[in-house]
Amino acid sequence: MMRKVAITGWPVSHSRSPMIHGYWLKSLGVEGVYDRQAVAPEDADLFYRDFASSGLVGCNVTVPHKETALRACETLDDAARAIGAVNTLWLDGAGRLHGANTDAAGFLGSLDQSAPGWDEKPGAAVVLGAGGAARAIVWGLLQRGFKPVHIVNRTFEKAEKLASYFGSDSIAQKWEDLGDLLGKADILVNTTSLGMEGQPALDIDLSPLPDTAVVMDAVYVPLETGLLKQARARGNRTVDGLGMLLHQAVPGFEKWFGVRPDVTPELRALVVADLEKKS
Predict the structure, then answer these.
(1) What is the pTM assigned to this prediction?
(2) Catalytic residue among 4, 26, 66, 184
(3) For the domain 104-243, what is the CATH code?
């Protein structure tokens, strides 16, 4: 029986997940299908609660359904419980729905591949933004021993809410204090949409940042954001957001199809070519 998997959310037409998983299915010689399935917000609760009748053996979940899908799961992995959202679902042999969050693993895997040794001496981290991506990244940084993790957001109350969720090793900070925080940072991560194609620029001065610090941007359109360009010019190691997208897909593919794929230069080049074609 052909195993069918899909990216689910609203909308999903822009998703590059079918390209990523399709590449692995073909290159690894695995029989299976990975497609798109749009799920309207008003249908989401029933869709995930009745997932066993969908014809899928599993799925990815994208916005705005990550919390709705979580409530439908019978079991959750540690990351999903801690982050409060799922992005990967699968059915077991008894038809029970299980959920995981692989965003933090994608973030960590991307850094491990692109900036090896980045976590050898974990220290202070600065995370810009307080949304869903920030939640996964803060959790990932804490797992690797970074502390404190400073959460900097223009709406301070959102930073406070996220920091309180993770406890004393994460600290909410005001945007106007960013300069002082950068001076002591070992890693800086942007999780906001600032700097994304069609969005306002992320206007910050990196001059206080140590040249040993790693700079990562979760944005991947464009691949080299203004933040990464500024960081690279001053000698910091930089990591773009595409790696996180590719690495977060690995655990799901292994769960659905029984083979653990690799994030290869060929896969990255395929997605980069698609990004450039549509930019």
Answers:
(1) 0.95
(2) 66
(3) 3.40.50.720
